[in-house]
Amino acid sequence: MTEPLTAAPAAGANSQNSPVLMSTYARQDVAFVRGEGAWLFAADGERYLDFGSGVAVNVLGHAHPHLVEALTEQATQLWHTSNLYRSPGQERLAQRLCATTFADRVFFCNSGTEACEGAIKAARRYHYVNGHPERWRVITFEGAFHGRTLTALAAAANPKYLEGCGIAADGFDNIPVSEPEALQAAIGPETAAIMVEPVMGEGGVRVVPAEDLQLMRALCDEHGLLLIFDEVQTGVGRTGRLFAHEHAGIEPDIMAIAKGIGGGFPLGAILATEKAASGMTAGSHGSTFGGNPLAMAVGNAVLDVVLEPGFLEEVSRKAARLRQSLAEIKDRFSDLVLEVRGEGLLMGLKLNPDVPVADCVKAALAEHLLLITASDNVVRILPPLNISEDDIVEGTARIARALSKLTVPAR
């Protein structure tokens, strides 16, 4: 696995600021050309352990043979026809998602932000077709992240992301999470839904307590609201359950998913009960590329693996091992690491505020380990769900080596 690669990097690939790409990312100065399992290979032949999974996307690692086979076979048959015609792949994947979740209806799109926007639209349309067009506002929570489109940014209400984008879209009441009185006070005659991530990944790997999610469900039932879960990052096994809300023993009315369901191929979906989907009538929504045959082949292949007997139990077992190792790291580097957060294989280390999280990610990269930043000075740890025990040991050892190179500045 350590043989040098012959592929040359593309022009500008070894520069964080390519002259031909918009400067919207602070890219790390490494270009990957091949992946295998939990490992990535750079253009110079060096290999890196991937504890970021493309930001929780590559749930089965890189170049998983079953996914490669499914995509290759479909690519030789049919790529795209649009949603003007029936799609056997869509129907099969939708049936499987409905059979394993609360949902009765599915709409396929291409990304998490599209799924979140569609979920908001579905909630508003539900009240509209049921005679309450005044109910269009959605309660959301501080620190959330629902995507980069203008409506998704307005839903999360993060000033940093909204800067320079004009007046934020109306219709959202953003409140602190885990404050029951604020939640109840936010409900009014115009409220249509409550929207929440069971684990706020981008927002600092903050787990929303089960009792808070249960209260949201109860309030929605009491006031005739719809409960929307954004499981773009937490879904498809990431937390040890197929979906994170299962830990709380409740079900939403609408759910947005993406990332893991495509295993690396762009794929998102809106899942809903029959009632919640009642406003999504012919012509009310659409997507040119959503649910194309290539995406459906890969999505079905992902479910083939994730739904295998014992797979999710194995994820939980590996997650317990990872958490234990991270707790040991916290004890060893108590001046640097303040808290271990997360659920399943969506973990985070809350760092000392005097140590920028970007410094930790950079130090890890020097150890040939990929980590992801998050808000609240948290480093995200997102290995593939099928990662080996040996790679967990190796990855946590590299985290420890990276932390050993950091210091807390003297005050």
Distance between the termini: 46 Å
Which topology of the domain at 83-306 does CATH recognise? Aspartate Aminotransferase, domain 2
Figure out the total of helices.
Answer: 12
Identify the overall geometry. globular
Q: Look at the structure and give the mean pLDDT.
A: 94
User: What percent of the residues sit in helical stretches (DSSP H or I)?
Assistant: 25-40%
The CATH architecture name of the domain at 83-306 reads 3-Layer(aba) Sandwich
Name of the CATH superfamily of the domain at 83-306: Type I PLP-dependent aspartate aminotransferase-like (Major domain)
Summarize the helix and strand pattern as letters: EEEHHHEHEHHEHEEEHEEEHHEEHEEEH
What order do the strands of the largest sheet run in, or round the barrel if closed? 4-12-11-10-7-5-6
- The value of Rg in angstroms is 21 Å
Highest CATH level, the class of the domain at 83-306: Alpha Beta
Description:
With 411 residues, this protein is α/β, with parallel strands linked by helices. The longest helix has 22 residues, at 311-332. It has helices spanning 53-56, 65-75, 88-100, 112-129, 150-156, 159-162, 180-186, 210-223, 293-306, 311-332, 357-366, 389-404; strands spanning 32-36, 39-42, 47-50, 105-109, 137-141, 172-175, 191-196, 199-200, 206-207, 226-230, 254-257, 268-272, 337-343, 346-351, 369-370, 372-374, 378-381. Among the domains are: 83-306, Type I PLP-dependent aspartate aminotransferase-like (Major domain) (Aspartate Aminotransferase, domain 2, 3-Layer(aba) Sandwich); 309-341. It is 34% helix and 18% strand. The strands form four sheets. Strands 4-12-11-10-7-5-6 form a seven-stranded mixed β-sheet, with helices on both faces. Mean pLDDT is 94; it is low at 1-15. The chain is built from twelve helices and 17 strands. Homodimer. It comes from Filomicrobium insigne. Its cofactor is pyridoxal 5'-phosphate. It catalyses: N(2)-acetyl-L-ornithine + 2-oxoglutarate = N-acetyl-L-glutamate 5-semialdehyde + L-glutamate.
